[in-house]
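Person: Show me a sequence?

Helper:
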Amino acid sequence: VIITHSAFKLLDMDPEFKTKIIDEQLDFLRAALEEAQAEDGKGGKKSPRIKQIEKQIENLEEKLKAALASTGKDKNVRFDELGVDHLMVDEAHEFRKLDFATSRQVKGISPQGSARALDLYIKVRYLEEKITGRSLVMASGTAVTNTLAELYTVQKFMDRQAMIDRGIEDFDSWAAMFGRERT
């Protein structure tokens, strides 16, 4: 079955599953916030990193509310009811923006994600629970356009379990493994 990106985003998911995945993301951000607060100490003023993570948590909570409201989604059929067992996503560069927390203050690395990427991530995670390691092909003729963060997102889509196994699921650990900051 071939459908457009705009039709794909209309396919809703089981509300419980959406909640589970977004709650995982929120737990990750809350843990990063606690870590940032512990590192920051009690100087009275919030650091930019803490403000950024708080804003991300707020945005993701809004995304959760919107996802559960299923605004703009098809009311007749859900993705999890279609029997899909594999996705081939063309123009995959349009989905390279998942939320993440970082303590790095590097120009151009924005930890804010897109609703489009989150929607695909939820659907891929659903498929991964059914058939591990065989749920997604991402195709794109567009090379990495902005940052290393895009590659992090792609690996999170394609091989999240390997990241977990190696202890590099969070962006900063992943970036320390695969990148270097240079001025």
